[in-house]
Amino acid sequence: MSTGTTKLDVVVSDVVPVNDLVTRFHFRRRDGQLLPTFSGGAHVVVEMRDGERTRLNPYSLMGSPLDTREYTISVRRDDVGRGGSLFMHNQVRPGLEMVVSYPVNLFSLDLRAKKHLMLAGGIGITPFMAQTTQLAAEGGNFELHYTCRTASLGTYADVLRERYDRRVRLYHDDLGERIELDRLLSSQPLGTHLYVCGPAGMIGWVRDRAAALGWPSETVHFEHFAAPQPGAPFDVTLAISGKTIRVGEQQSLLEAIEAAGVDPPYLCRGGVCGQCETNVISADGKFIHNDHWLTEEEHRSGKKIMPCVSRFEGRSLVLER
Amino acid sequence: MGITFRKETFRDDFTFKNSPEHIRRFPFPFHEDAYMYAVNIEPHVVGPKGSVLENLIDVDEHYVAEMQDRALVLAEDPLRCQSLPHMTLAGWDLLELLMEQQALGYPEHFTLTRDGDRWRWINRPLGIDDTFTFGDTSTLPYGPMEYITRQSQGDFCILDQRDGNLWMDAGMVTTQADWSLDFDIGMNFFEWHAPVPLAHEKGIFTRALKFLTNIQQGKPARRLNWTMTINPRLDTSPENYHKWGPDRATVTPENVGDKVHLRVELQSFWRLPRSNGIVFPIRCYLIKMDELVTQPKWARRLHRVIRDLPDELANYKGLTRFRPTLVEWLSKLDDGSATSPGFGPD
Ligand code: FES
Predict the structure, then answer these.
(1) How far is A67 from chain B (nearest CA, A)?
(2) How far apart are CA B69 and CA B8, in angstroms?
(3) Of chain B residues 17-56, which have a CB less than 8 A from chain A?
(4) What ipTM was reported for this prediction?
(5) What does DSSP assign to residue A6?
(6) Cα A250 to Cα A255: distance, rounded to the nearest angstrom
(7) pTM of the predicted protein model
């Protein structure tokens, strides 16, 4: 059976600039009904009809899970990315009809936790907006540490401070402020779960330190905002569907497979959920694995690839699809 | 119109029966003349009118009697219903799902009215009319999971998803085929499946787990499972083995048709929206051999399936003791002609 997501017909109900880089988008259901309930940390995949192309980008839901009259996402403009965020910023206006997926949660709260310690970097704040709302409503115990480049780029920092006061700590890079991670991690009560969302470097740092300080891996949760990276074009043969396709510079392998009319499964489009995993039948060249799903060993073996984020450089590549 | 609910028992005098319409809607699980264990999962979408899939949560003529039987089981053994503390939110998710689906499918029997958090639930067959605050456990007579599953046919396992695995952290289990919630609670997917023979080698569970952890909101899935039960007992739990185990030695050529029941479980899998858990309703359907063989196609096919079942599977399903008697009895109804493809009767 197809594992693509169920779709929702929505209309853009508001577009709100938040700061120099970030814009917030509000969606309502076209038929006026309530949107499906979701849990803090969930994302939706937004479909963007950009001329001939359909772009599919995942964005965290940042509104309250207790109020599903609308969904809200925040999009950080990336001037050198593949164009999805620029499309959102430049083309999407109130009244536009769009399609989004049902919510999917790959960054779920562990409801057994006695305390939730949250670490956000930059736009990585968005899933915590919904999670803190959910926890606050239930009287849950949380603490949020949020690093941003400057005060003016501290997206929703003011909102969070106002809502949660001292439970939120801010760190500004331009003032040389930095999370005292080791001290923070060593001083938590037993039963604390750690959540981190932000740039890959930050996630790596937090996971490494947590492991070094003896945090069991099942108490450390993270979400990457890994968009597919552009790269040199390459050709792929799809054995089952019998097609040979070209993956463009700004296109992901998954997008190229979809454009060829094959309907492969996906959930995150960011190399973390495992859903798009595909067997390599033969390859002559070098893989650029950007995913966080396969093990190092699997990367080295060259027998599997995650088409949503990974690329290839070389003479020939045949995949089972 | 509505359903006419039967007055019947699943214990002592065993007055359980299927009406003729219910015999025809029975979810016969064999689509060919042989059975092999497989991950036969498909999307849980609405099926033909008059089938058990007409609604995603099925309510049938046994509803009231099953709920009375559940109350008896719980009175004797409250541990059949358990929920670890972090699963309360998932219980509310389940309450919403079951109220919505039952009200949608059977408006003449169930009504749900919401005014923000103030909900009113009317269950006419059981004479319930309650108003409560969604999310506030103190406004219901039981926890949300127990409240709604005392009013819903089938067993319910609620699974927490974490660390890429599923954990059986809550459930209402009173109509099970020989397993125990009290034993499995807190276990993960591999732990609670450990006793199934033949399946591990085939990597079936690894694939099934991967599928289940990717179940998405708005896209439930389902599968059928089956076994056989002597007498129409809903509660064949390990705790009560002393009651139902000896039944298996009571099958004679004279009473096969009345005593031996095919037991089919329609299992469905749903992602819960607030808790991100998964609920796994296991709906049990029973039919005695005398009723089943009123459909000649089913009689012929069941004969071949049971006759050719590998021994270890027959053993696992607990059929060994009465299999020869059953096969002999069914063989008289098998004229050797071909059976048509598909599950339905001819
Ligand atoms: S879609 Fe999730 S890993 Fe590729």
Answers:
(1) 10
(2) 10
(3) 41-43
(4) 0.83
(5) P
(6) 10
(7) 0.89
